[in-house]
Write a structure and sequence with these properties.
Blueprint: E1 22-24, H1 26-37, E2 47-51, E3 65-67, H2 68-74, H3 80-85, E4 92-96, H4 107-114, E5 118-122, H5 134-150
Parallel strand pairs: 4-5
Antiparallel strand pairs: 1-2, 2-3
Length: about 150
């Protein structure tokens, strides 16, 4: 998993007012949840999340607007500890030390407590940088080789 989101209530979300605030359109989100519950998925492309980061703080790779569909794919639920405890296969979590969305230092304690996933924090990488560098890809490859050697 690369800089995974779990839930708005998880300890991973930054709460330091780092200029990376966002806004979720809760009424629209709730309406789309109701429509989906009765089998209507026609409006899942509707934007429900907007990142309010000032333009000068953007690095150009952010997703500043998320559709309902994309927002759902990024979160599990408020019962995230239950989902983490179900991870029984080898799991690798990669996060950038300078992640502007999540608190990198919160990942290891949370994942080790609930599932024992291997957490790697890469220095000098931001939220999206962990998918764009050879250093990050090298960490993933190294972990995969280790998993394959154990089998």
């Amino acid at each position: 998993m690369i800089a995974p989101a779990l839930s708005p209530s998880s300890p991973l979300n930054r709460k330091d007012g780092n200029g990376n605030e966002s806004k979720v359109n809760v009424p629209k989100y709730a309406l789309l949840m109701l429509l989906n519950a009765i089998g209507i998925h026609w409006f899942n492309h509707t934007v429900v999340y907007r990142r309010l980061t000032p333009t000068e703080k953007l690095h150009g790779t952010e997703s500043c607007n998320l559709s309902y569909r994309l927002a759902l794919s990024r979160m599990v639920s408020n019962q995230y500890t239950k989902h983490l405890s179900r991870l029984t296969q080898p799991t690798f979590v990669l996060i950038g030390e300078d992640d502007e969305v999540f608190s990198a230092e919160a990942y290891e304690p949370l994942y080790s407590k609930h599932c024992g996933a291997e957490v790697h924090v890469i220095p000098n990488h931001n939220h999206n940088g962990v998918i764009q560098t050879m250093e990050a890809l090298g960490k993933v490859a190294q972990w995969l080789r280790g998993v394959l050697e154990k089998r």
